[in-house]
User: Fold this.
Amino acid sequence: MTRVFSGVKPTGHLTLGNYLGAMRQWAEVDQYRSDALFSVVDLHALTVDHDPARTRRLSRQAATLLLASGLDPRLCTVFVQSHVDEHARLSYVLECVATDGEMRRMIQYREKEARERARGRGVRLSLLTYPVLMAADILAYGADEVPVGDDQKQHVELTRDLAVRFNQRYGHTFVVPRATAPKVAARVMNLQDPTSKMGKSEDSGPGIVYLLDEPDVVRRKVMRAVTDSGHEVVYDREGRPGVANLLEILAACTDGNPESLAAVHQSYGSLKKDTAEAVIEVLRPVRDRHRELCADPGYVEEVLRHGAEKARAMARPTVDTAYRAIGLLPPVTEAEPALNAAR
Ligand code: TYM
Assistant:
């Protein structure tokens, strides 16, 4: 059975971009057709300036939203990354396979590094090595597929490179994974600046639809979306990025296609109205279920406890194999000293 791994990092409230680009696919497709693991990758949230209490709150909220979006713990494994030591254990070994140059070429690193410097903050070393930890997340589970939005594709490519390099040098250990992305809305753009991604870590709210926004707030944000100077509704990502973004969001929410939706809308106003209502309808069950789950925190905790146990058992053998393959001496266990001496 195909193994799938993906994750979301708790650096801000989850957005419509996270949902349409990744989470919806996990809940509607991946968990049914594969052996899937989905993680709140909290170690990744420590790579930029953060407030510990807020990170804990966001981790709990992200886990609750994963379940609210439809992930069913009977079908897939839902867990928090830091509850499973194997991620950090494998990350170090992969750092011994990756190069400094590879890390510095990562687009997200370059963007975030520039942002941190502009704010007068030091750049954490973990921001540079972040993609290696992400590779460890994926490779520890032998994932075949990694369903992500467009912005994560480069990191999955790097993961492939590291897996191939490790296997060539130290013997076959890792499955070489591939990224999968949704057909539309793999890159939802900021409604106020349609040339940049709708990202949860940004400070500005008006261009970002959060999964827990009230319907009125969603309506206001979509109705105020920046469009382009023309009047005709056409799907042209380069020339009309604002309108194209709305068309993609509407297409994703209604299982339609952006070109045909452009043809049936006569004005930007009607496109915005339909998009707002479609987004509200898509988010409604997520918000409702989130409210129910918040009333039962014990359930969420139990899911995460059980998920971490399952994840640990899956990751351990692969990480142990990687430790042996790269030349680390196996620890001597009381039960089998002679066996270890022979290895
Ligand atoms: P993160 O937390 O930024 O985003 C989680 C998922 O949502 C997708 N996404 C988007 N898709 C479309 N449009 C957008 N505007 C948008 N914003 C976010 C992301 O592509 C992602 O799929 N490094 C990862 C987390 C991670 C991970 C992993 C993912 C850590 N380890 C291992 C997969 C496998 C990240 O920062 O995602």
Observations:
- The two ends are 32 Å apart (CA to CA).
- The first strand starts at residue 3 and ends at 8.
- The mean pLDDT is 95.
- Residues 3-186+297-336 form a domain with the Rossmann fold fold (CATH 3.40.50.620).
